[in-house]
Amino acid sequence: MEFEYLVITIAGFLAFYIKGLMGIGTTTVLLSITALVIDPKLAIVLTAFANIFGGMAMLKIDPAPISKTFWIPIAALMLIGSIFGAMALKIVDSDVFSLLLGCVFIVLALWFILRTPKPGQIKDGTPDKARATDIFTGGVAGLAGGFIGINVPIMATYFGRFLNKQYLRRFFVLAYLPAAIAQTLTYVANGLFTAQILIYGLCLLPGLSIGIYLGNKAHYKIPELWFRRILAVFLLIVSLKLIL
What distance in Å separates the CA atoms of residue 45 and residue 22, rounded to the nearest whole number? Predict the structure, then answer.
């Protein structure tokens, strides 16, 4: 019993370090590790819960200003897409879809690794308003996330084309937080959010503070190019999980 609490605490530190560094990664890291020591369903609920206070913590330490008319429409369609993605599980064979999408994600990740942005292509800020392609990408990412639980490669590859590391991280935090809240509320309504989840959540608090603090410091120290290479390797690992 004590072993699982130790594993969850360590997993929390690793997950929130990645969160502080890149603004994403909590779900992938935390779910992969905690599912080894607790019931996978509990791990999924715990991960959604962790994404809320991880996102809230990031809102306080990341000052990059992003226009509401840019990120809110994207986040809204992500949320809608995730609902339809979850509904699609009843109709489509998720294993086949995961394999196909995993192959696509690997290509995207490799392209992101090999790609060197042209001078002036990466903006120090975000557009004032979301374009139709931005919103559409959010919807597709939400659909993939609701269906197979992974959509980071889509978001990172598309928005990483024109956002620098600081604004990309801030955008990730803002875009994923509403979905985490909605997901957790759904678990509460379905009776899946138990007292045990709260106990596990308490185990994550030390890792939350230390991990995000150290990850945030690393974020500002690493050069833009190295940030993008680290993100690309992370995307490749996430993509490989879908086909292995």
Answer: 22
Residue 101 to residue 96: CA distance in whole angstroms:
9
Under 8 Å between Cβ of 156 and 230: no
Work out the pLDDT band at 74, boundaries 50, 70, 90.
very high
* pTM reported for the whole predicted model: 0.83
Please state, as a whole number, how many other Cβ atoms lie within 10 Å of the Cβ of residue 152. 24
143-96-41 Cα angle (round to 5): 65
> Could you tell me which of 103, 155, 115 has the C-alpha nearest to residue 133?
155
Task: Count CB atoms within 10 A of the CB of residue 129.
Answer: 12
Q: Which of 88, 93, 192 is nearest to 145 (CA)?
A: 88
Q: Measured between alpha carbons, how far is residue 145 from residues 28, 51, 223 in Å?
A: 12, 14, 29
Chain centroid to Cα 213, Å, comes to 18
Enclosing domain of residue 84: 2-243
